[in-house]
Amino acid sequence: ASEMLMLRRELVVTMLRVVAPRCAPGSLATARVAAHHAWDARQTLSEFARREMLALKEVAAAARVLPTQWLLNSLADVYVQCALIMPTIALVPKDYLAVFGDVVLALEGGDLPRATLRMQEYYERNDGAFLKRLAELVA
């Protein structure tokens, strides 16, 4: 589990670095909408995970960077399957929508360091909490 989470974190942060130069104010409106759809589905972890990946794909699509879209497609399948297997351990982070909104705003404003730092901290905090719950369950 920790390896998959680390790969997701690294892939998403790398995707942000690649797409950032192509983001302009307002260019990520569809990604914002997709993030709200993910948030609306937060009661069902697998559906939230699927929609969360769709929101990230919208970031890559808006920047028209096909390789990042392809990589996210591969990651999404595994990520959603994990959410189906571990619905009692994994939780939808309460700050998901706020963080996603901050990241998108930073990207549209040309502030790549803020976007990547915010996403990195979000994943590290929430992945750490998930791994702790998982360790407690198997202990």
For this entry, give a set of tags.
single chain; 139 residues; mainly alpha
Give an overview in words.
The protein is mainly α. The chain contains 6 helices and no strands. The radius of gyration is 14 Å and the shape is globular. The mean pLDDT is 87.
Short summary:
This protein is mainly alpha-helical.
Q: Residue ranges: pLDDT <50 for 5 or more in a row?
A: none
General form: globular
Work out the strand percent: under 5%
What is the typical, i.e. mean, pLDDT? Answer: 87
The total of helices stands at 6
From the N-terminal CA to the C-terminal CA, the straight-line distance is: 15 Å
Sketch the major β-sheet: none
Task: Detail the topology: elements first, then pairings.
Blueprint: H1 2-19, H2 29-40, H3 45-63, H4 66-85, H5 96-108, H6 112-138
Helix pairs in contact: 1-3, 1-4, 1-6, 2-3, 2-5, 3-4, 5-6
